[in-house]
Amino acid sequence: MAIVMNMEWPSVTAAQYDELKRITNFENDWPDGGMFHVAALDGDKLRVTDVWESPEKFQAFVDNKLMPCVQQMGITTEPIISILPAHNVFNPGAMAAKK
């Protein structure tokens, strides 16, 4: 079952997000089960919305890739995460790219 993961991460800057993106290399080495990712900054917090094939695949990415990089960077704030079952997943941009 696909899930929607919403994250608010206080005190994580755009520069820190960009460094995490570089270290995890998730844009070139796609995490297993990752279907969609968008990040935005809201004042002094990072907001992320992801769609994953399952909660287990999201947790595997967090445990094996994301958190080791977060610790390496010395980020000490904790994210606030909510996970909901996806009712529908539609990504027209990805569909257009396949044409």
Describe the protein's architecture and organization.
- The chain has 99 residues and is of the alpha+beta class.
- The chain has a single domain (3-98), classed as Alpha-Beta Plaits, CATH 3.30.70.100.
- Helices cover 37% and strands 31% of the residues.
- The chain has three helices and four strands, in the order βαββαβα.
- It has helices at residues 14-24, 55-73, 92-98; strands spanning 3-10, 34-42, 45-52, 80-85.
- It has a four-stranded antiparallel beta sheet.
- β2 and β3 (45-52) form a beta hairpin.
Helix fraction bin: 25-40%
Q: What is the fold named in CATH at topology level?
A: Alpha-Beta Plaits
CATH class: Alpha Beta
Total count of helical runs of at least 4 residues: 3
Annotation, overall tally of beta strands: 4
Cα radius of gyration in angstroms: 14 Å
Question: Helix/strand-derived class?
Answer: alpha+beta
Mean pLDDT: 93
